[in-house]
Amino acid sequence: MKTSNIIIISTIVVFIIGFAINAAGLKKMYDHTNWNDPYRNFTKHKLNKTFDRVYVFAPDSADLWNEDSLSIKRGNDNVLMLENDPNIHWQATDSGLVIRFSHNAKGLLITPKIKQVIVRRVSCRISNFDLDSLQLNVSKEFCGISISNSKINYLNVSASNHGHLVLDEYSRINKLNLALRGGTFSSGIYIREISQTVTPDSRIELWGNALQWIAQKK
To answer: First and final CA of the chain: distance in angstroms?
Structure first.
């Protein structure tokens, strides 16, 4: 057999072996992928401590999803998971965890506890917490915080410049201090004690058990 034919055959054999190894590796990766995990394509960053305060921002020029850009959920670990990682810049500072989004990036923060969340031009969902107190600051259009399935003894909220706060019907709030300055407050739950400062350009939307608040005021 000619030397050139041997080289060609050897090259083909090496290519076939390489292809088979690569295919086996891809199959193993496919078999070990949890396709039901909505965060399977997220990059995972372990945080070295719990941050009481979280800042979540986006520049005015950024294109954002209509849905929540960041979800904050209670968990035993401190983990930040990000999708479209190059479009998210985050930094651990002395004052708290700072996360900057741009261009349809999304993230998940898992943390045992939290005391304050400050958002600007980003939508954020907070869920599954049991807290003595929580402070929320919402400002700028296309910006909001939703609280889901959480128990909070004292909630302090400031919403301005078309910022939006939503309390779902599965949450429980004992005391609420509400400051609306051109913002919107939406609630489906009854809150026993409320103090409020509301400007005329603000909106309050109530449904479900929250309507007991109106009945009590009459």
So the answer is: 101
